[in-house]
Amino acid sequence: MTLPILDKPQPADLKKCVHCGLCLNACPTYRELGVEMDSPRGRIYQMAQVAAGKMPVNDDYVEHMGLCLACRACETACPSGVQYGRLIEGALAQIEREAPRPLVSRLIRRLVFAKILRSRFLLAAGGYKLLFYRKSGLQQMMRATGFFDGLGRLGELEQLAPEAQAPFFFSRIGKTFPAEGETRHRVAFLAGCMQNVFFSRLNEATVRVLQKNGCEVAIPGEQGCCGALHVHAGLRGLGREQARQNIAALEKGGYDAVITNTAGCGSVLKEYPDLFETGSAWRRRAAEFSAKVQDVSEFLASVELNRDFGEVRRTVTYQDSCHLLHGQKISAQPRRIIGAIPGVVFRELPLTELCCGSAGVYNVEHTDISMSLLEDKMRMVEATGADTIVTANPGCMLQLQAGARKFSKRQPVMHVVELLDEAYAARG
Ligand code: SF4
Ligand code: SF4
Hints:
By secondary structure, the chain is α/β, with parallel strands linked by helices. The chain has helices at about 10-15, 30-35, 40-50, 60-65, 75, 85-100, 105-115, 120-135, 140-145, 155-160, 195-200, 200-210, 230, 235-250, 265-270, 280-290, 295-300, 320-325, 330-340, 360-365, 365-385, 395-405, 415-425, and strands spanning about 175, 185-190, 215-220, 255-260, 295, 315-320, 345, 390, 415.
C-alpha cells in the first residue's frame, strides 16, 4: 500500500535540519524540561534515526514525540525552513500505526475521534449533560465541599472543563444570513465541532461581525468537524475523511472565502492538500478548497473594515495563538483590528509567541507541563496590567480562562471577533 505523503516523516523534510540549535530557545518543552530529546532538534534527530531504521518506534520515542505541543514555534525560529509541523504530524501518525496503544485507550480514542466529534447528536448530548451538572448546582456543591481537592489530575481536569453554552449553534447550521447593507462578499462559515456547544456565542458573534462587514454568510449543512484534532492526534485517516466531507460540501458553493474563527482548524484546513497523494484528484480539489480558507481576522483585515464602532473601555493584551502565528504566519491582522476599536488601550504581551499550554488536548494529557506554561503566561499578562485578554482560538480561550481563574485576577478572555462585536453593539 502506498502511504499518502506525510503519514510518516519524509526524508526530504528531515534533511533540511542542519542541527544548528537556533530553535531551542523558542521551544516551550525544551525551556521547561531542558532535555535535548525534548527540543525540536532532538526530536528531528530521533525521527531521522527511526526513518533510517537505526531506532525502533519504542516507548522513549513515543514519550518524546508525545510531549511536543506541536505549537510550531520552532518553525518560525528555524532559518533553514524546516517544516516541523509536517514532521511531527507524520511522526504521530507513524506512532499510531507502529506502537498501538492499550486496548482501553484505543477504545476511548475511537469513541471520541470517530464517533463523538463527528456527530452533532452526540456532541449536543454531552453538552446537555455538562449543562445539567452546572445548572443543577452539582458542580458548585462538589467544588465547595472540596470533592476534587484530593483527586489530583482529575481535579485539575474538572477546572479545565469547558462550559456548554445553550442554545447550541447547531440550529444555525444549514442557514444563510444576509449581509447588512450592500452584499460585497459571499462567504461560507465553518462552525467547527465542539465550538457549536462550547462556543455558541463566539460563533454567533462571528456571523454578526461578518454580516456587519458586507458578507452574506452561508453555513452549509453538509459540513463537519475539520479533522484538525484527528490530524494532531496522529489519526490522519480520520482527518482525511473529514477533509473529503468538507471539500465536497463547500467546493460547489462558489464562495469568495471559507471562514474559520479557530486557528487550530485554520492551519489544517489550509493544509488539506498535504493529506492526499501528489497528483491525485483529491489533492487538486483540496488545493482549490484550501486557497479559499481564511481566518476571520485575516479576512476582516483584507476588506474595508466597517468602522461604525462605539467605544469599548478595556485595556487589552493579545496572546498569539500558535496555530495562527506559527502555523499561518498571521500576527499583524488581529492587532490591527484591536487597534481600530475606539477606547481600547492595547498592551503588548511579553513572550506572546510562547504557547499557553493548551495545544488541543495537551492540557489533558500533560497537565503538569501545561499548567506550568500557563502560570508563566499569566505572570506576563499581569505584567501588562491588562484587564482583558484577547486571543484568536477557542482552545487558547479555555486555557487562558482557566489561567485567569487559577493564577490571576479572573480577567475576561475574549476572541478578537467578540471584541469587534462588542464595539458594534456599543454603537447601538
Ligand atoms: S512544536 Fe513546539 S513544543 Fe514541539 S518541538 Fe517545536 S517548539 Fe517545541
Ligand atoms: S530545526 Fe531549524 S533551527 Fe532547529 S536545529 Fe534544525 S535547522 Fe536549526
